[in-house]
Amino acid sequence: MRSFTANRLFFTLLITLGLLTSSGCAGALSQLLYVIKGHTVPATYGGLEEKKIAVVCISDASAYGPDTLTYTISNALSIKLAQGLKEESVVVPVSLVEQWIDTHGWDGRDFLALGEGLGVDAVVAVDVKSYTIHEGSTMFKGKSDVTATVYNIAKGGQVDFNYGPRIFEYPTHGRPAIQTTEREFETRYLGQLVIDLANQFTPHDHLESFANDAILNY
Question: Which residues lie across from 40 on neighbouring strands?
């Protein structure tokens, strides 16, 4: 039998829902349901679940040797995917991907060879072009041309999913250079870029994007 407190809480909830519905407070009702159930958005592409995958990032600069930008994106995205995918999924550590690339002299484009060499089911390849975090001499604003492609290794490297090319800008209105350092801003920009990429492959909270926008549009 329910306790008096439990009964009161139950009926209070019913009355609240009834009042919100009858008064047409759709927004308030949505907020209440969000508190109760959450607001998880499914992945745009769910084909990475329960697969062994490798993440690699390339850019114009990476063709000429080690590139801190591409390593940072690969590593951060690998971590986000490992956190967001089901436990049965396996994400190869970026250190092992880099080791294979260095050992085999990978050309930066043969994703089938990379996937077969690492023994994975799929390769998530991120291609970054025209990367900048400056808007004039007094503002920081991240902007890059990004494409993310999933190559199915079991099917000869066929493209199973493609996101982009997309111009990813953040934040909307930029950030005065006197309010932050270049390193701090770039770290935040790359963090948002990786979240945007990870959201294509993992379920995520729809309201997080609004919170993230509010953080930097200050």
Answer: 205
Q: Please check whether residue 32 is in contact with residue 17, taking contact to mean a CB–CB distance below 8 angstroms.
A: yes
The answer to whether the CB of 86 falls within 8 A of the CB of 49 is yes
Strands 52-59 and 90-91: parallel
Q: Under a CB-based contact definition with an 8 Å cutoff, are residues 85 and 49 in contact?
A: yes
> Which residues in the chain show pLDDT less than 70?
1-38, 61-66, 206-218
19/189 Cα distance (integer angstroms): 43
pLDDT tens across 94-115, in order?
Answer: 999 999 999 999 989 999 999 9
Strand partners, 143: 132, 169
Its pTM stands at 0.78
Nearby residues of 39 by Cβ (< 8 Å), 6 or more positions away: 205, 206, 207
Task: Please give the domain boundaries of the chain with CATH numbers for all domains.
Answer: 4-38 (no CATH), 47-216 (3.40.50.10610)
Q: Which residue(s) pair with 54 in the sheet?
A: 123
Q: Give dist(CA 110, CA 209) in Å, integer.
A: 34
Q: Phi/psi class of residue 179: alpha, beta or left (left: φ > 0; alpha: ψ in -120 to 50)?
A: alpha
